[in-house]
Design a protein that fits this description.
This protein is mainly alpha-helical. Helix content is 89%, strand content 0%. It is built from two helices and no strands. The chain has helices at residues 3-37, 46-108. The radius of gyration is 37 Å and the shape is elongated.
């Protein structure tokens, strides 16, 4: 490996070392922030409150989702019924048009 290859590797290693140093500083800063924002021993643990509140919120959203799914099923059933009725009416109309066409054809032939 030539001098240029070694210089390239030195720059890569310096870049990695710099990135690790920045990550270490950011981690230490975040640890300090968390230490000052966590509640004291007398309170319910921070994580416990969060997951319980989240669970309650998720449960509420699931109930809302179930209700909306039932509404959608009901609306779809009504739509199916309406479409079935429209299909019957269309088929009857189409049959009447065919009968009328045959009558006109019979009437037009001598």
């Amino acid at each position: 490996m030539g001098q240029q290859g070694l210089e390239t590797w030195e720059r890569v290693l310096e870049s990695v070392e710099h990135a690790l140093s920045e990550a270490s500083v950011a981690t230490a800063k975040r640890e300090q922030e968390l230490a000052t924002t966590l509640p004291g021993e007398a309170e319910e643990p921070f994580a416990t409150r969060d997951w319980q509140a989240g669970l309650i919120e998720v449960d509420g959203r699931l109930q809302e989702l179930r209700a909306r799914a039932e509404q959608a099923e009901h609306a779809a059933a009504e739509g199916d019924t309406a479409l079935a009725g429209a299909e019957v009416a269309f088929r009857e109309w189409l049959a009447a048009v065919e009968r009328a066409g045959r009558r006109l054809a019979d009437w037009a032939t001598p």
